[in-house]
Design brief:
The protein is α+β, with helices and mostly antiparallel strands and 445 residues long. The protein contains nine helices and 13 strands. It is globular, with a radius of gyration of 23 Å.
Length: 445
């Protein structure tokens, strides 16, 4: 149960300064449109269904998936058999006309008269898959033999505090790096201003998609990517570095490796700071001023996964999972901080296993790290099998929020909570490090 136990100082100016500095560092996305017409946001999912031959009726899904078995013959035996593609070949623009089509606003509107970020996560997930299908378009068939799914949300960085519910939004994106069976996708979101028709950046997103065979059972090769010019070569190089960074981060995971010496010192200092000095006991703990025990800073939720939320492969849509996790994370940050939180970054969302239709999805959001007016939230999702009575992890989500006020310090009590604290600190440090690098680049002459 969440409890806010102390009154804290309001610091809205810090929020404004931080978001302004982030905006200054964002780069405008490259223009690769070359006269192509943008796609309406409502047509993205219908295009995906046409590409894979998915049925719009739940009752027909078994037959539709059975027909995909015939596409195995179109798969490449090796990547060298596939024609190389350029970045501009996969470039797509999608329009979300909230300004010019008011009937769309209801779906996206929140109670604060701004856009629901969870809906944006759904749109980004669908767009990322469509971009990859555009990159791997099969010339011999309208239907793709590939099953392309989201493997990882590497990073989403926001530079605006509020997304307006009555101004048009534009998404752009393209494949930025390719391995043998995986693709990195860079996407950008822009919005028209309140007083002019100029698009300005809202967020940058990096997703990693993987290609599977028509039955979504084995990996499948994708078309290689050939960068053109120094700018694209740098983008491709960063994609390779991102892959190496993810490997290093996974190798150093606290689930595999012991904390560093510096981290062990942090944990021990927290332990010493919570000892009851009136007793000579390791078990007697007291909560420091302006602090909250970690066990008192969590919220849980349950979702029954209905067919309405299925994706084109008749599993639960990854964007839906992200929306539900984000909204629970937002509610947790709101309850903990005592004021409206603003999302600053999303990172390292790993899709570990698909969620089947009919599953019971259990979500648990935990405040795992705080610093000034920042709140780091970890959301763990798992499915419960009522037949075997087993719980299986499907995703772990990491969200960085910024509160309008300085928030209480979160304090772990057990060793397991201390590892959550250190993991949250690592994710927060990675987010703020990138922000500082952007600010340094912006300030450079």
């Amino acid at each position: 149960m969440l409890a806010l136990r102390y009154t804290v100082r309001k610091a809205p100016s810090l929020l404004a300064r931080a978001l302004t500095s982030m905006t200054n560092g964002f780069q405008s996305p490259p223009d690769m449109s070359e006269g192509r017409l943008p796609i309406h946001v409502n047509n993205v999912r219908s295009r995906l269904r046409a590409i894979v031959g998915a049925s719009t009726n739940w009752s027909d899904h078994v037959q539709a998936m059975h027909e995909r078995k015939d596409l195995h013959s179109l798969l490449a035996k090796q990547q060298e058999d596939l024609s190389p593609r350029k970045m501009k070949d996969s470039y797509i623009e999608v329009i979300l006309p909230l300004g010019s089509q008011p009937e769309l606003r209801e779906k996206y509107l929140n109670v604060h008269n701004s856009v629901r970020f969870g809906r944006i996560l759904e749109d980004l997930d669908s767009l990322g898959v469509l971009i990859c299908y555009t990159h791997t378009k099969h010339e011999a068939s309208q239907r793709s033999p590939l099953s392309i799914v989201t493997a990882l949300v590497d990073k989403i960085d926001l530079c605006k505090k509020v997304i307006y519910p009555d101004c048009d939004i534009k998404f752009t994106g393209n494949v930025s790096w390719v391995g043998k069976t995986s693709m990195e996708v860079k996407m950008h979101m822009l919005q028209v201003g309140l007083h002019d028709d100029t698009y300005s950046p809202v967020l940058d997103a990096t997703f990693v998609m993987v290609a599977r065979d028509p039955e979504n059972k084995r990996s499948a090769f994708v078309n290689p990517l050939i960068p053109e010019g120094p700018e694209e070569e740098e983008v491709f190089r960063k994609g390779e570095l991102n892959k190496m960074r993810r490997v290093d981060f996974s190798t150093a995971s606290l689930l595999k490796m012991a904390p560093t010496a510096e981290e062990r010192t942090i944990v021990h200092n927290i332990f010493l700071n919570t000892l009851d000095t009136r007793t000579v006991s390791f078990r007697s703990r007291v909560l420091p001023p302006n602090s909250v025990w970690m066990e008192d800073a969590k919220l849980k939720g349950l979702e029954i996964c209905h067919p309405q939320e299925r994706n084109i492969f008749n599993r639960i849509f990854g964007g839906f999972l992200m929306r539900k996790a984000y909204e629970l994370g937002w509610a947790t940050a709101c309850s903990y901080g005592g004021s409206r939180p603003y999302v600053v970054a999303v990172d390292d969302i790993m899709f570990q296993r698909p969620v089947e239709i009919g599953s019971l999805l259990l979500l648990s959001a935990q405040v795992c790290y705080t610093e000034k007016n920042y709140i780091q939230i970890r959301v763990h999702s798992e499915v419960y099998d009522s037949d075997t009575r087993e719980h299986k992890t499907t995703n772990v989500f990491h969200f960085t929020f910024m509160s309008e006020r300085e928030v209480p310090q979160i304090v772990p009590k057990t060793y397991g909570e201390s590892m959550l604290y250190l993991d949250g600190k690592r994710h927060f440090s990675a987010t703020t490090k990138e922000t500082r690098e952007v600010e340094k680049t912006t300030a450079a002459p």
